[in-house]
Design brief:
The structure is a single chain. Strands 2-1-3-4-5 form a 5-stranded parallel β-sheet, with helices on both faces. 40% of the residues lie in helices and 12% in strands. Helix 3 links the parallel strand 3 and strand 4. The N and C termini lie close together (12 Å).
Length: 176
Amino acid sequence: MIRRLYLAGPDVFRPDAQARGRELKALCAQAGFEGLFPLDQDVPAAISEPSEQAAWIYRANIGLIERADAVLANLDFFRGPEPDSGTCFEVGYAVAKGKPVFGYIPEHGSFAQRIRARHPQAIGADGVLDLHGWSIEEFGLPLNLMLSVPAPLVVGDAGAALAQLARWRQVHDRPR
């Protein structure tokens, strides 16, 4: 039964991250879920060394993913034409643990189309390769296949993804 959702995404880096976390958790509650937001936990004041803080945050976030029944992931582009790398790790970790992952992105289109539309400066003159001559993945999926295949992706915001997740839960979480 899916009740608790780990809220993955670059939202923790926003200037209004705490408010965004409250907003996401409220959306979860409206859809019948408990949202677990990474910033709900504070690094203990006694941990002052940045590398120790990072290790504490890593362990705390892994603990939240372990407690969660599923992951809701903001997989929009972040700081360039790819999702946040930490979010990608969290998605992979959840998949490896057998937890369902539901992602959301803001627009339709294949990965290559989305890069061309939102980050044209990353595309080479031929429109097929990037600026460094590397190929741009094009399987018709909205993100890299390692994210698109295991995680159903909703075009829209967190609310749209939660609505799809609630519908999925009705079908998959029925008592047998």
